[in-house]
Design goal:
Layout: E1 7-11, H1 27-40, E2 46-49, E3 54-56, H2 58-66, E4 71-77, H3 81-93, H4 100-113, H5 118-124, H6 128-139, H7 147-150, E5 168-171, E6 174-177, E7 180-184
Parallel strand pairs: 2-4
Antiparallel strand pairs: 1-4, 2-3, 5-6, 6-7
Helix pairs in contact: 1-2, 1-5
Length: 189
């Protein structure tokens, strides 16, 4: 029979971070975790062992303390040190793989309310480049573009160079002058 442990409120002062915890978050991820806790609450409990050492939930404890919480939902389990470390690995890594097409469908749905996908930045810590890639994929599935978009000439006037007509450049074994290969020499030792 599978045990279903009880969730209880524990005082944050009485639970301890495991200094060997390998899971780390960037400032952006911690900020997103804080925002999601403010929006949705303390919906994911902290897992602790019989000595109140955290197995899973180090960042949740840190953010909860920043938010001024005194207590937090916890699940306490009796475990050996090896099982605690194994469980930490399982909870941090066994997440599954996202189906890209289903992710895009969710992003499209989110975009109906939030066209710039700022909510993903705020709650999931996605950066502008990643968000831009999502929006491009939604607007142009599988890289499909209109004929007009494909014929757009990029603005190259901003590129400054000292290259003048008649300058020569080496490119591997080739010498390039005025955009044409003019000389090839293969030297064998």
């Amino acid at each position: 029979m599978i045990e279903i442990p009880e969730t209880k409120l524990e005082y944050l002062d009485n639970i301890y971070l495991d200094p060997s915890n390998p899971n780390e978050m960037s400032k952006e991820q911690l900020s997103a975790l804080k925002e999601s806790m403010l929006k949705y609450g303390a919906i994911v409990p902290i897992i602790i062992n019989q000595d109140n050492m955290i197995i899973d939930g180090h960042q949740r404890k840190t953010v909860a303390e920043e938010l001024g919480l005194k207590q937090y939902p916890c699940i306490k389990i009796n475990t050996t040190e090896v099982d605690a470390k194994l469980l930490k690995q399982i909870l941090n890594k066994l997440k599954g793989v996202h189906n890209v097409d289903k992710d895009l469908e969710e992003y499209k749905f989110i975009m109906q309310e939030d066209p710039s996908l700022d909510l993903l930045k705020k709650y999931v810590a996605m950066d502008d480049e990643y968000i831009g890639n999502i929006i491009r994929e939604i607007e142009h599935p599988n890289g499909q573009h209109t004929e007009e978009e494909l014929n757009e000439v990029p603005d190259v006037e901003r590129i400054k160079t000292d290259i003048k007509l008649g300058d020569m450049f080496g490119l591997g074994a080739y010498i390039i002058k005025d955009g044409k290969k003019i000389y090839v020499e293969v030297v064998e030792e």
